[in-house]
Specification:
seven-stranded parallel beta sheet, alpha/beta, two-stranded parallel ribbon
Length: 275
Amino acid sequence: MGHVLIVGCGYVGTALGLRLATRGHVVWALRRNPAGLPMTLHGVEADLLVPNTLRHLPRVDAVVYLIGPVREDDAARADAWVHGLRYLLSALEPQRGSIRRLLFASSVEVYGDREGAWVDEDSAVSGTSALARHRLEGERLAQKGAIPTTVVRLGRVFGPGRPGLLDQVTAGEACDAPCWLNLIHRDDAVGALHHLLDLRSAPGEVVVTDGAPVLEHEAAAWMRTRLGKPPRSADPEPGVARGVRCLNDRLLASGHAFAYPSYREGYAALLSRMR
């Protein structure tokens, strides 16, 4: 790819940048405050909501947009996924003929609640929640632009330093909500993003989950067993489980291979590190 701009170099973005840098790419990391970035990444100090700070972006071959909201409210989500993206696309306009791909990180939340139905990239999306509405607006904005775009619908990311459900189990929380989890280990999320950047022709939308959805209470019960904790005496809440179950066939068909094909392998690796 050559020169890659990662916009939002946080948990996933920094790991992606390090992976690309070790493979010989020049990686530019855009942050409001680039202090503390690994030395192999080139910091770009800019604020997506202040267009003047975007005037002198480096010339790049690809862009990965991994911005998250600074707060969990409607305005912050719109700033992260819509307004900031619009300003960035405008700033990249002089380069539109040379940037071969934009990866826009979205979420499987755009499918809404379908009581456990299976979904993939061809399934209808739902903008009924504020989270999904702004994600979808960002997806459409990215795809309407002049840069060839792949929307990456990520599952719930976990990994080193972000154990997610494992923290709740360790703390003795119930974790018995009747809901489906579509998970992805951070290293597999990074691997999938790198893979999509390397493809000569990437699809317009790709689901990036491990492809093995699991009910929350089943994953929690497995973790309790691995931790040597007694099983919970109470049964899970009755009723139809919320959410969706995501298929990742398109990603697999493109040639990507997972290091952690289900939550079991991913969390087993985390538990080994903890020991």
